[in-house]
Amino acid sequence: MDGYSAPPLIREAVMRVAHATTEVEWAKTFRFSPGAVESGAAALRRGAPIITDVEMVRAGIRRSAAERTGSPVLCFLNDPDVAEDAKRGRATRARAAMRKALPLMDGAVVAIGNAPTALFEVCDLVKKGLCRPDLVVGVPIGFVGAAESHEELMTLDCPWITVPGPRGGSAVAAALVNAVIRIAERNEEL
Questions:
Q1: pLDDT by residue (tens digit) across 64-84?
Q2: Which of 8, 42, 86, 114 would bridge 93 by S-S if both were Cys, CB 3.0 to 4.6 A apart?
Q3: For the chain, which domains are there?
Q4: Is the separation of the CB atoms in 116 and 149 below 8 Å?
Q5: Which residues lie below 8 Å from residue 56, measured CB to CB, with a gap of 6+?
């Protein structure tokens, strides 16, 4: 991470991404809203839920560490009612899963690593004033909608972490959440 200057907590999160992806230069391009890491760590120390868009992100999060903070790691994508909503044409499964998570989203850590539609839904919910997560990690990957969803996230009035462009992914989302968990576990006053 030679030549990379950032506050220590952001540097720690970026290093986790670099380790997960072996993309050191790319990891340096990540964007953090002011106080994002601190807000996420404080939420986890309070036992806030971690809500993921897909099981792959959920699987990459160190659940034993999250559980030590009292934070459950949740994904609603494969719930039967979410699939039923999608079948009825009301929304993609990813959007429907975020809608189902809405009652838990205030003060939560939300990690989106796969589905731009999930991130668009979270952005819509926040903009409508229906919730305010304490951290949104928004790094869905892909050629369709990913870059636009990252840009949309950066307009929100809530703490967020993202990266410009279409890159990201489940491993990246999990790495960022794991960094925040690690910081929360140290129980530092932030």
A1: 999 999 999 999 999 899 988
A2: 86
A3: 8-185 (3.40.50.10230)
A4: yes
A5: 113, 114, 170
